[in-house]
Write a structure and sequence with these properties.
Keywords: Cell membrane, Membrane, Transmembrane, Transmembrane helix
Helix content: over 70%
Number of helices: 20
InterPro entries: MFS (IPR011701), MFS_dom (IPR020846), MFS_trans_sf (IPR036259)
CATH architecture of the largest domain: Up-down Bundle
CATH topology of the largest domain: Growth Hormone, Chain: A
Number of strands: 0
Membrane topology: Multi-pass membrane protein
Pfam family, one: MFS_1
Transmembrane segments: 63-87, 93-114, 126-143, 216-236, 268-288, 294-319, 331-348, 416-439
Distance between the termini: 40 Å
Number of domains: 2
CATH superfamily of the largest domain: MFS general substrate transporter like domains
Structural class: mainly alpha
C-alpha cells in the first residue's frame, strides 16, 4: 500500500486499486488538457450539468460562433439580394427561383467530393480560405453588369464549398469543446443561431433592399464573410490536420464516405439525421399555395415560413437548458419518431393560426438532434470527423432541397394540405424504420 493513503481506503484491494486507477486517469487527463490548451467544462465543481453559459465561457467557441453569425447574416441577405437581382435582370420567375435553389443543389456534390479537405488540411486554414472564397464569389456577383450566367455560377460555387465550411466548423467544435456535453450544446447553439439568423436576415434583407440596390446589398455579404475570416484567423488556434498523408482530395473524400457508410452504426445515425428534414420542409415549401387556399395572403406565407424555425429554436433551447445529457439521449428516438405527427392536422385544412401552431409543434421535435449529435461524434473515428460532419451537413441540405421539390411536384396534382398530411404519414413510417435501424446498431 502506498504511504500517505487515507485510512478509509485501506479496505478491499479492488476498491483501492480502482481509486488509484481513477486518480491516475484524472491526473493524466488534467495534464493532457493543459497540454492541449483545451477547455472541458462538462460539469461544474458542484456537479451540475453544463449549460449554454458554459459553452460561451470558452473563448475559441465565442470566436467560431460570432464568425458563423456574421457569415450567416451575409448569406441570407445575399440570397434575397441575388434572387431579386436575377428577377430584375431577366424578369423570369424560374431563374429567380433557380438562384435560390442553387444554394441547395451543389451541396451533395461538394460534400461528397470535397469532404477530404476537412481532415487533410488544418481546420483553421480551411475555415479562413472557405470564407475568403465565399467573399470573392459574392464580390463577383456585386460587379456592375455581371451576366446572369455568372451570377448563377457564383451562387453554385458558394454552395459547392458550403458543406466543407459547415463540416469543418462542426468538427472544430469537437476540438474546441471536447466530445462531451459541451460539444452537443455548441452544435445546438449553431443550429439555433442559424434558424434565428434566417428569420432576422430575411427581414433585414427585405428592409435593406428598400434602401439600396441588390448589387449594393451583396456587398454586405462580402463584408460578412471577410469579418468571419478575420475572426477565425485571429480568434482560434492553429491545429494540425486530423488525417496524415497527401492523398488527392477526391480520393480521400470518397474513401471516407465509403468507410462511414460501411459502418452499421454510423450509417444508421446519418439516416436519422437525414430522414426527418426531408419531410419537415413540406409545409414551408407549400406555404404560398396553402396560404392562398385559405385566404391568408402574403402575410400568411411569411408567418408559415417562420413557424418551423421558431419551434425549432424553442425546442433546442428547452432541451439544452432543462434536460441533462442522459435525458436528452433518452428523448432522441421518441422525439424523432413523433415529430412529423402534427402534420396530420393538415387533413382538417386548418386556419392560419392552427397551421402555424402545427408547424411550430413539429419544430419542437427537432430537439432530437441534441442526443443524435452525441451519438454521432462518439461513433465516428477522430481521423474521419471532418469528413463525417461534412457528409452529414451535405446530406441534410440535399434532402431538404429534394423534399421541397417533391412536395411542390405533388402539389401540382393534390391540394397542398393533403400533401403536408401525407408527408406526416409517410414520414412517420420512414423515420420509424430508421429508428429501428439505430436501435439495432447499438
Amino acid at each position: 500500500m502506498c504511504s500517505g493513503m487515507p485510512a478509509t481506503l485501506s479496505g478491499p484491494p479492488a476498491r483501492a486499486q480502482s481509486f488509484v486507477r481513477s486518480r491516475k486517469s484524472t491526473v493524466r487527463g488534467a495534464c493532457l488538457r493543459r497540454l492541449l490548451g483545451m477547455t472541458f467544462v462538462a460539469e461544474s465543481i458542484s456537479g451540475r450539468p453544463a449549460g449554454y453559459r458554459d459553452v460561451f465561457g470558452v473563448r475559441e467557441f465565442r470566436a467560431v460562433f460570432a464568425a458563423h453569425l456574421l457569415s450567416l447574416l451575409g448569406i441570407v441577405t445575399g440570397e434575397i439580394a441575388l434572387s431579386v437581382l436575377v428577377y430584375r435582370v431577366t424578369g423570369s420567375p424560374l431563374l429567380s427561383a433557380l438562384a435560390f435553389a442553387l444554394g441547395f443543389l451543389p451541396y451533395l456534390l461538394g460534400g461528397t467530393l470535397l469532404a477530404g479537405v476537412a481532415d487533410r488540411a488544418p481546420a483553421r486554414r480551411v475555415l479562413v480560405v472557405c470564407n475568403l472564397l465565399c467573399a470573392a464569389s459574392a464580390a463577383v456577383t456585386a460587379l456592375p453588369g455581371a451576366p446572369v450566367a455568372v451570377l448563377l455560377a457564383m451562387r453554385g460555387f458558394s454552395a459547392l464549398i458550403g458543406p466543407v465550411l459547415a463540416g469543418t466548423r462542426s468538427a472544430t467544435l469537437g476540438d474546441v469543446l471536447g466530445e462531451g456535453d459541451l460539444f452537443v450544446l455548441g452544435r445546438s447553439l449553431i443550429r439555433i443561431v442559424t434558424q434565428g439568423a434566417q428569420l432576422a436576415g430575411f427581414a433585414a434583407g427585405g428592409l435593406l433592399l428598400t434602401a439600396v440596390s441588390p448589387r449594393a446589398a451583396l456587398l454586405f455579404t462580402v463584408a460578412g464573410f471577410l469579418a468571419s475570416a478575420l475572426l477565425l484567423r485571429f480568434g482560434t488556434r492553429r491545429r494540425p490536420a486530423r488525417a496524415a498523408g497527401r492523398a488527392d482530395v477526391i480520393g480521400a473524400s470518397l474513401s471516407g464516405a465509403r468507410q462511414l457508410l460501411a459502418d452499421r452504426r454510423t450509417r444508421a445515425l446519418l439516416l436519422l439525421s437525414w430522414a426527418p428534414p426531408f419531410f419537415l420542409v413540406a409545409p414551408e415549401s407549400l406555404a404560398a399555395p396553402y396560404a392562398d387556399a385559405i385566404g391568408a395572403g402574403t402575410a400568411g406565407v411569411g408567418l408559415l415560413m417562420c413557424g418551423m424555425p421558431v419551434g425549432t429554436i424553442v425546442g433546442e433551447v428547452l432541451a439544452g437548458s432543462l434536460l441533462s445529457p442522459r435525458a436528452r439521449e433518452r428523448i432522441t428516438l421518441p422525439a424523432a419518431s413523433v415529430l412529423l405527427l402534427p402534420f396530420l392536422l393538415y387533413v382538417l385544412r386548418p386556419s392560419l393560426g392552427w397551421a402555424l401552431a402545427t408547424v411550430a409543434l413539429a419544430g419542437l421535435g427537432a430537439a432530437y438532434t441534441l442526443g443524435l449529435d452525441q451519438w454521432f461524434v462518439a461513433a465516428v473515428p477522430e481521423e474521419l470527423r471532418g469528413r463525417a460532419m461534412t457528409l452529414q451537413t451535405a446530406g441534410a441540405m440535399s434532402v431538404q432541397g429534394a423534399g421541397m421539390a417533391l412536395a411542390g411536384a405533388a402539389a401540382e396534382y393534390v391540394p397542398a394540405h393533403w400533401v403536408v398530411a401525407g408527408s406526416g404519414v409517410i414520414g412517420t413510417l420512414v423515420v420509424g424504420s430508421v429508428v429501428r435501424l439505430v436501435v439495432g446498431s447499438r
